Structures are given as C-alpha cells and as structure tokens.
Amino acid sequence: MNRGFSRWGLDAQRLSASNRLTMKFNRIQLVLALFFTVTITPAYAVNKDLVELQAQVTQLQQQMTQMKQSFDERMGVMKNLLEQNTDAANKVTAAINGLQASINKQEQDRAGQVDQISGQIQALNDTMDELKVRLAKLNKQFEDISSAQQSMAAQQAQAQQQAQAMAQAPPPDVLYNNALRDYNGGKNDLAVQEFNDYIKFYPNTDLAGNAYFYLAEVQFKAGDYAKAVANYDLVLQNFPSGNKAATAQLKKGYALLELGKEDEGTQELKHVIQRYPRSNEAAQARERLRKVAPPTPKSH
Fold first, then answer.
1. Residue 217 exposure: Cα atoms within 13 Å on the Cβ side
2. What is the C-alpha separation between 212 and 196, in angstroms, rounded?
3. Residues 6+ away with beta carbon under 8 Å from 64
4. In the 8-state DSSP scheme, what is residue 203?
5. Domain co-membership, 85 together with 188
6. Which domain holds residue 40?
7. pLDDT score recorded for residue 44
8. Strand (E) or helix (H) holding 102
9. This prediction's pTM
C-alpha cells in the first residue's frame, strides 16, 4: 500500500512539472515573436543571417510544439495511469483494511476460544484431582476391609482350631491333676507339656496361675533362672490373689539373686515380707536376706 501511494505522489509531481514546462514554452514563443517584430523586419531583404536565424527559430518552434504535443500525450497517458493506480490503491487499501479487520476478529475469537479451552482444561484438572483423592480413599477403605477380612478369617480359623482342640482336650481337673502327678513323680518333661496344654485350653481358670508357677519351678530347678523369673511374673501379674502368689514372689527373688541381681532380688524379698508378713514365705525371705546382707561391724 505504501508503494502505491509513493507512485501516486511521483505521478502528481510529474504532472506539475508538465504544467510548468508548458508555461515556459509559451513564454519563449512570446519573446521570440516580439524579437522578430522589433529587430528583423527593417533588415529582412539584406540580412541573410537573420533569415537563417528565423528559419532555425521556426524549426525550433516546430520541435518545441512537437515535444509539447508528445509530452501532453504522455501526460495524458500518465494521468490515466495515475487515475487507474489511484483506484487500484484505494481498492488495495480497502482490501487490506478488510483483511486486517478479519484478522483482528479471528484473533479475538481465537483468544476467546483459548480462554474457554483453558477454563475447561482447568476444570478437568480439578475434577481429576478430586477423583484421585476419592480413589485414594477408596483404595484405603478397600485395604482396610481386606485387612479386616483377613484378620476375621484368621480369628475364625484360630477359634475353630481352639474349639476343635477344646473338644479333644481332657477336662480341666483331669489335665491339671495329671500334670501335678507327673511333676511330683519327677517326670518334668511330661509335666511341662501337660501344664502348657492346661494353660492353652484353660487360660482363665484359677489353676492356670498354678500351672505357670510349676513351669517356673521346673525351670528354676533346671538352672534356667531367666525363664523362671518370666513365669513367676506371669503368676504375680495375672493371678495376684492366687494361692501361689506369695511363693512365686519369694522364688522370683531367689532366681534374681542366682542371676547376680542382688538389688532386684533383695527388693522382691522385702516385698514378700511387706505383703505377707506372717506367712512362711516371709520367714524364708527374712532368712535369705540375712545371708545376703553384709555382717554388721561390732562396735568397740
């Protein structure tokens, strides 16, 4: 479009130059006519040079007239071309303006579409995040349910095994009496198995505390003092009011002393004296404490 306007300006300059040249030709013709009238007429017959000069001037006038005609024709063509170029430039300008308007509209529409698509994408991302959170919760619930089902299945299997074992187990008094008979008869291995079976089948009965105690007694006699302390503790913790509680605490003190833990052992013996002051176990505890305590130095 700028090139069309530049060409139109050049054509306008050329037209202005043509008008100025035409005016200059007319002035030259007028000056020559006056010159011939004033100077040439009195000496026409005698001055051959003037005649030749007049002929040259005439020829020059003819050439100038031809040049003017040619120039006018060219200027007419140029004027026509100028008008055509002007129309074409106007059409091109209108087309460019229309194209620019179309491009602007398309850009606006595209910007609106991009904003709309961006909003839709953001909404989809938000929905996806929400779905991920829900899926994570569902997975956690599924894992919890699966774990609970497995735990229930294991508990059911264990209960079934216990029920089957209970159905096959001998009565509690028979099992305990057999274990006690074998213990008193020196059959420690068989007695340990029977006491363990009693604890397995009847863990909540009062005699279960006695079973723990006799297991500890077997371990104490075998020199396994650490396991003996553990079973004495089970008697004291689970059956503190049982008939073996005082003896269990006394023997626990003995076992700790055998392990070289004198402070803990003496502390257990003192607890026996405090809790059961008139019992045989308290008397045994005092006797053992006298052996453990260092002799008191005599005063002079």
1. 19
2. 8
3. 25, 28, 29
4. T
5. no
6. 2-101
7. 47
8. helix 48-168
9. 0.47
Per-residue model confidence as pLDDT tens digits over 74-84:
888 888 888 88
Residue count (the chain): 300
Can you tell me whether residue 240 is helix, strand or coil? Answer: coil
Q: What is the pLDDT of residues 30-78, one digit of tens each?
A: 656 555 555 545 544 457 877 888 888 898 889 888 888 888 888 888 8
Domain at 254, CATH number: 1.25.40.10
Over residues 9-18, the mean pLDDT reads 56
Are 228 and 220 contacting, i.e. CB atoms less than 8 angstroms apart?
A: yes
Token pair, residue 64, equals 């100038």
Residue type, 233: D
How sure is the predictor about 18, in pLDDT bands with cuts at 50, 70 and 90? low
Tokens representing 34? 């006056």
Residue 198 · residue 172 · CB < 8 Å: yes
Domain assignment present for 121:
no
Total domains in the fold of the chain:
3
Q: Which residues contact 266 (CB under 8 A, 6 or more apart)?
A: 253, 257, 289, 292, 293
DSSP assignment of 169-197, as one string?
SPPHHHHHHHHHHHHHTT-HHHHHHHHHH
Establish how many alpha carbons lie within 13 A of residue 111's alpha carbon, considering only the half-sphere containing its beta carbon. 6
The angle that helices 262-275 and 245-258 make with each other, rounded to 10 degrees, is: 160
Residues 6 or more apart whose CB falls under 8 angstroms from that of 268 comprise 249, 250, 252, 253, 256
Q: Tokens standing for 290?
A: 């006298």
- Looking up tokens 């006056």 gives 34
Same domain? 72 vs 17 = yes
- 143 and 190 belong to one structural domain: no
In this structure, the answer to whether residues 183 and 249 fall within a common structural domain is yes
Phi and psi at 68, nearest 5°, equal: -65, -40
Torsion of CA 60, 65, 66, 68, to 10 degrees: 120
Per-residue pLDDT, 5 = 47
pLDDT digits (tens, 9 = 90+) for 181-206: 999 999 999 999 999 999 999 999 98
